[in-house]
Design brief:
The protein has eleven helices and ten strands. Helices cover about 40% and strands about 15% of the residues. The longest helix is centred in the C-terminal third of the chain and has 15 residues. The protein is of the alpha/beta class. The strands form two sheets. Strands 1, 2, 3, 4, 5, 8, 9 and 10 form an eight-stranded mixed beta sheet that branches. Strands 6-7 form a two-stranded antiparallel sheet.
Length: about 300
């Protein structure tokens, strides 16, 4: 299994600027790479709240931080942290990537390169999985989600091919699905033809875009004044949501006379996203990573 490397670690530390005794929430703690560094910088007087929806990640976090007295590990969706009774904090990190461990473990069904039952659930207690989406969604619904969530130009052709194939036999595995897609898309460059469709199905299964919108709104509730927010996204749909959220909350609201009726909540730290292109030579996951950051000013 490939060792998980936290993406843009140095850049995250730079924009969050952790200080001794501060508190943070890692909303998508994963295997704890970013949190480990943050904890080392805030010291024993600081505190970290580590949240993840993946039980496997939670189990790993509990082992990694079992001797840390200043850590609380919570299994939950970050869209629901407003129900956990957490205090206001100085830093919030959201890393939206699928971890190397999830991709490398074939039976999670995230990868189109490894044979596994179609799954793709980040929380394996959820009922909806990729197997259901692929074998039960209508051709129209499949085309729509592949087009909108995968930004795949050949969404209609792929959806039609999926439906025709499942009439012959149920599509059980990742490789079956990848081969169906490959029959409709010619490989160009380094991008696998299945990439966008698998992304789209994963987003649907995990309700990722709605989760992100709710998580960003929660960040405003839990950041104290002067608190820093950092978000790492991995595809344009996520990045657009993050950019729009920061843009909208960095502007004053005025009435028709120009009178300010609501102050801005945030100040941008990154006018343009910090990318992981330079890091991608030694950390493949960083290839498409974009980091945006802001400070809460109200």
């Amino acid at each position: 299994m490939q060792k998980h490397k936290p993406v843009l670690l140095d850049q995250v530390i730079e924009v969050l600027h952790p200080g001794s005794g501060e508190k943070f929430i890692d909303m998508t703690a994963g295997y704890g790479g970013h949190s480990k560094k943050l904890l080392s910088m805030i010291g024993s007087d600081g505190y970290g709240y580590l949240i993840d929806r993946d039980k496997q990640a939670i189990d790993k976090l509990k082992k990694s931080f079992k001797s840390a007295a200043n850590v609380q590990i919570i299994k939950n969706r970050f869209s629901q942290i407003d129900k956990l009774g957490l205090p206001k904090v100085d830093m919030i990190l959201i890393d939206l990537g699928v971890s190397s461990a999830q991709l490398d473990e074939a039976n999670r069904g995230f990868s189109f390169l490894k044979e596994a039952r179609l799954d793709m659930r980040m929380d394996r207690s959820d009922r909806l999985d990729a197997h259901y989406v692929v074998n039960n969604y209508s051709q129209k619904d499949l085309a729509n989600l592949i087009f909108h969530y995968g930004e795949e130009k050949k969404a209609r052709q792929i959806a039609k091919s999926i439906v025709e194939s499942r009439k012959v036999r149920t599509i059980e595995t990742t490789i079956q699905l990848a081969n169906i897609i490959a029959g409709k898309i010619r490989k160009t460059g380094k991008i696998n033809p299945a990439t966008k469709t698998f992304q789209a199905i994963r987003i649907e299964v995990n309700n990722e875009l709605d989760e992100l919108k709710k998580g960003l709104e929660n960040s405003l509730k839990f950041l104290g004044k002067g608190g820093r927010l950092a978000v790492i996204s991995f595809h344009s749909l996520e990045d657009r949501i993050v950019k729009r959220f920061i843009d909208e909350n960095s502007k004053e609201t005025t009435d028709i006379t120009g009178k300010v009726i609501a102050q801005a909540y945030l100040k941008k730290v990154t006018k343009k996203p910090i990318t992981g292109k330079l890091e991608s030579d030694y950390n493949r996951r960083a290839r498409s990573a974009k980091l945006r950051a802001a400070v809460k000013i109200k």
